[in-house]
Specification:
The protein has 5 helices and 13 strands. The protein is α+β, with helices and mostly antiparallel strands and about 250 residues long.
């Protein structure tokens, strides 16, 4: 509780002194994520305060990217890529937290326009195919992102304390993309936005992981050769160890 009060006082002072009264203020204690070799994921706590009662929605969107999606078909005994489509403006991460379920807010048009909720998320690309078929490809992308832990089937919860302070947890898997993540907080009431705040999360590689990534990106051929040699040496070492044990 003390932590909430400290953050609330700090944010209130900063926002009120710079911009005047705000209905919604929010932020992180630490908004940086460093990816190294041992990175297994991370959780960030997001805090804030509201001056007027309403519905709270927090949307976290990762760097948008262009992806090529393949459709697999089983031929004889093998699964093979039969066709592909290119989509652009696809968020590498997408998370929504709400103070109450989205289906209880009764503002479908607003949610759709602002792409709030997985069912309202839009991707550009593959306009050459019919909308029904395009929706199948879109759903395939979303399912893949869910399996990677970068999209979420269920919305997160926003804990409201003393009617004015709030907190939510934002989880990241080990397979997250580098870049700047946008965190938009909205305070809704009577089909209108009465408060908003935008924050950012910085995700970057560090240490040995960064060096390996840069080497693999800039010198892909050499990286592939070294990877094959390393695998062969590892296999040889394992075989020698087993041979000595059985001798």
């Amino acid at each position: 509780m003390k932590l909430f009060i400290i953050i609330f006082l700090y944010l209130s002072f900063f926002c009120n002194s710079c911009y005047g009264k705000q209905n919604l203020i929010a932020g992180f204690l630490d908004n940086n994520i460093n990816i190294d070799v041992g990175f297994t994921g991370k959780k960030l706590s997001y805090f804030g305060a509201i001056d007027i009662q309403g519905d709270l929605v927090i949307i976290v969107t990762g760097p948008r990217k262009k992806i090529k999606v393949f459709k697999k078909e089983k031929k004889i005994w093998f699964w093979l890529n039969s066709s592909s489509r290119i989509f652009v403006d696809v968020p590498s991460y997408y998370f929504v937290a709400t103070s109450r379920p989205l289906n209880q807010m009764k503002n479908d048009s607003f949610l759709k326009i602002n792409q709030i909720g997985l069912e309202n998320l839009r991707f550009e690309g593959a306009e050459e195919i019919e909308e029904i078929e395009r929706a199948k490809w879109r759903n395939g992308i979303i399912d893949s992102m869910k399996k990677m832990g970068n999209y979420f089937s269920k919305n997160g919860n926003i804990d409201i304390i003393d009617e004015h302070l709030f907190k939510t947890e934002i989880s990241f898997s080990s397979d997250i993309a580098e870049g700047v993540y946008i965190v938009d907080s909205l305070l809704l009431k009577n089909d209108s936005v009465i408060g908003s705040n935008r924050s950012f999360i910085n995700v970057s590689k560090s240490g040995l992981g960064e060096k390996v990534y840069l080497f693999a990106t800039e010198k892909g051929l050499l990286y592939g050769i070294f990877a094959v040699i390393a695998a062969m040496l590892f296999g040889f070492s394992v075989n020698e160890a087993i041979r000595k044990i059985n001798a």
